[in-house]
Amino acid sequence: MKRVKQFGETVEGYNVPVLNEREIRASAGILYLLMFWSWILVIFNDNYLLLKYANTIFLADFIVRIFISPKYSPLLIIGRLIVSNQTPEYVGAAQKKVCLDNRSGFIGNHIPSIGCNEFRQLH
Q1: What mean pLDDT comes out for the span 9-16?
Q2: CA–CA gap between residue 13 and residue 75 (Å, rounded)
Q3: Alpha carbon 25 to its chain's center
Q4: C-alpha closest to that of 22 among 70, 87, 101, 68
Q5: Domain ranges of the chain
Q6: CA-based radius of gyration for the chain
Q7: What is the mean pLDDT of residues 36-54?
Q8: Average pLDDT over the chain, rounded to whole?
Q9: Which residue, among 65, 61, 59, 41, has the nearest Cα to 51 in the 3D structure?
């Protein structure tokens, strides 16, 4: 019986589902750049708007990665376009699934702070 939902892709030459490590790293770099720029604006301009959007993008992207499939994650799609001319480096999807599950627990604990409250400085 074939599984309906599979985490990872089936690639010829591999017995287990795999993910392209280059796509994952490219999407992580995009997210890092977005969060870094957000925090720079917070620190130097006291502007929290981009941070709110970045947190929402981060949360939405990880929800898609965990509950739907990494194949449909918006940042992974952008990462896939960036590294499309490079040779794929495949890694086991099961290992990445464990990592994503751990992150989802961390994110789940912080959902109330994302977008629910106004970011204000305490004086």
Answers
A1: 78
A2: 27
A3: 10
A4: 87
A5: 18-113
A6: 17
A7: 91
A8: 78
A9: 41
